[in-house]
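Sanity check

After download, print the first record. It should look like this:
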Amino acid sequence: MKPIKWSMQTQFSLKIQFVALLTVCIDRFMHLTERALKLLSCSFVFLIFFTHSTYANDLPKFLMMAENWKPYNFEHNGIVKGISVDILALLLKKLGSTQSRNEIKIYPWIRAYTLVKKNNNAVLLSTTRTEQREKMFKWVGPIFNIEFNIYALKNQKIKISSFEDLKKYKIGTLRGDVTEDLLVKYAGLQISDFDRVSSNLANIKKLSANRVTLVAESRNTLMTTYKEAGLKYDDFESVFILDKKGIYYAFNNETPDEIITLFQKAFDDLKSEGIIAKIFHSYGK
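Expected structure tokens:
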């Protein structure tokens, strides 16, 4: 006879019910000797601990990756920080995982994006959820929502009124970024039409040097990169809105649905408790 394989949630539910039953037993057998009561109490404490660690025992060890995108995920003095990093660290702790922020790797976007698709137990921080990507990953979030724009130098006085107008200009993009997907989908452009770079900083620098006429970025990205480039925010202006999307944790598509459910429940709990809002506030958001 083959052994029955219970799902993680079923196992957890059964253990909870057993703990409840044990509590009733303790209540009804208070007349037992002091030694027997101590034994039952120890068993109760053990089961509580065992139940708490149920998820941890079933969680795989994840390959956790992110791009350098302040203030959501970045490295400072050898320490990985950011809004998305802090939230993920709390999720791991809440689920009893032994992993921590120290295991999150900061890679160029295209490398991290490729690795998360190739490794079963992998998660990519701060990923835009789109129709094109929907079935490529499993999602937890949203961490926040974001608006993607087309930016130009203000002194160029460029006016864009439609996606068709974008075909007239040389557009700088981050290689493999969601903005490329949006431009292909809505403007009918091809990847070969873009001036592609490996970092948002390089994109902004090209725009300021008039090497491209437009760049596709989110306002959040522009706000954090113009300072690194030694420029002023007033030098730029949004000339067109591409789309608004949610930013999520993207897990490899082979991740069991039960694992995703656990992370989503933990995320929802942090949100309802106001902890996620406090993390955003601590980064000035």
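If your output differs, re-run the checksum step. Summary of this record's structure: Residues 1-6, 12-24, 39-54 have pLDDT under 50 and may be disordered.
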